[in-house]
Amino acid sequence: MTPAAEPTTPSFSPLYQQIKSLILQSLHAGEWKPGEPIPSEIELASRYGVSQGTVRKAIDELAAGNLVVRRQGKGTFVATHAEQHVQYRFLKLVPDLDQAGDGDPGPAERTIVDCRRSRASADVARALALRAGDAVLQVQRVLSYAGRPTILEELWLPGTPFKGLTADRLRDWQGPMYAMFETEFGVRMVRAEEKIRAVLPQPEQAALLQVTAQTPLLSVERVAHTYHDQPMELRRGLYRTDAHHYRNDLG
Amino acid sequence: MTPAAEPTTPSFSPLYQQIKSLILQSLHAGEWKPGEPIPSEIELASRYGVSQGTVRKAIDELAAGNLVVRRQGKGTFVATHAEQHVQYRFLKLVPDLDQAGDGDPGPAERTIVDCRRSRASADVARALALRAGDAVLQVQRVLSYAGRPTILEELWLPGTPFKGLTADRLRDWQGPMYAMFETEFGVRMVRAEEKIRAVLPQPEQAALLQVTAQTPLLSVERVAHTYHDQPMELRRGLYRTDAHHYRNDLG
DNA sequence: CAGTGGTCTAGACCACCAA
DNA sequence: TGGTGGTCTAGACCACTGC
Predict the structure, then answer these.
(1) Which residue in A191, A195, A246 is closest to B247 by CB distance?
(2) Strands (E), chain B
(3) pTM for the full predicted model
(4) Residue A188 pLDDT > 70, yes or no?
(5) Which residue of B has its CA nearest to A91?
(6) Of A9, A30, A98, B38, which is most buried, counting CB atoms within 10 Å of its CB?
(7) Architecture of B84-246 per CATH?
(8) Which residue of B has its CA nearest to A248?
(9) Do A216 and B239 touch (CB under 8 A)?
(10) Residue A4 above 80 pLDDT?
């Protein structure tokens, strides 16, 4: 606001950016839930006292960031991991023989190996913007495709927002885990970043994936963020790549 | 055009999409070279007989696809791998300790291991949309960071567009290889897709990277495309991930 | 200063959907 | 049929660049 403080700040914010921020606030505050429609462009325009075109440009950017989905003739809806056409939006592992070509890895069998409350180690705390020793939820599970264990992943969640999450609730839930986070805990994952390495498994890891300790695996460390770039999940995955590969499109 | 032929085709093309196609054609035809400005929005509007806003929306999409770069007050320029802020746009390997945080892996020493003309094998031909036996150029090189061999890559180029490419010219060129393809051969890479696996190296590969044959490595197979999604390069890379990692942002 | 892209508006019309 | 998002236009004004 005061142009004296930040020299590198563009001392100018377009109207549509301000509108975008306002809509973002309402999304974060849960004024409209995932899957629900947000008010029409005309209604938002009159609410904020700007033209429809300005609201339109704001929503354009939200839609580009997958925060919102437009459907012609129906309205604009809060994006969700549940009913979304692209389920498992953040999972880039696809079968080598992808006949359909749609990157759909097919149905996965999920096995919860472990689920318990613990305290954040230094690196987990750093990734989740907590303090070391804070309460976290720790889950370990295996995903299998066609009976073949393929992904072993361990994930950490901050304890407070996910109070009440148990192994049983995880087991009972059908569909993407991120969809459960939305409907059960009101936490919507919006963005994620992954660091990928090639590693050899520890003996216990090898056993869970039914491979030898000499089998090279993809190590995928993901930090998923909710609104305002707040980190809400750390996930460390080990991917078998003998029948699958990690697919990435570089625009 | 004829709505009878294709049942699933949206028998409707917005004006700005048509304008986008026209601009794309000019880009492909080389009417404006990489780094050069394209005509102003007003000029394009009058050339195509549409309003400035329509041209604007067309250019918006081209800019979103990194085909073109807008610079306020100066004009709109054909994107290039050379002077682009993000050099090595397609290289996602970054140092584990990235102090600057800009993903800049720093200067690389390049060593050409091999460069020769050969004939396309079946899989190379399929990737490059050629026929098996067609002339291809085959290059093998090593990239080192701080004296440490980190990337071993082998790449195949279709023989015809790259007539005259030799090991010497590769060695002499400073800067990104894709920048050379632009200025020397008029081939601009626009999009790429990568398939990533974890593998163990062959003995010769291990020697070139100065690692043991038990060191897990990232296998990165990239197909790079020029305009109209035409494949123009197949690149198979082996990445050491003991001091670097592959970084990916999931929007 | 003139020329460029960037923002904002107001209004018209079209395509899609549901009741 | 009415409401939604999608397209297109025309014009005004702003911000940035270079001369």
Answers:
(1) A195
(2) 37-38, 68-71, 75-78, 93-95, 108-119, 135-145, 148-158, 191-199, 217-226, 230-239, 244-250
(3) 0.91
(4) yes
(5) B250
(6) B38
(7) 3-Layer(aba) Sandwich (3.40)
(8) B194
(9) no
(10) no
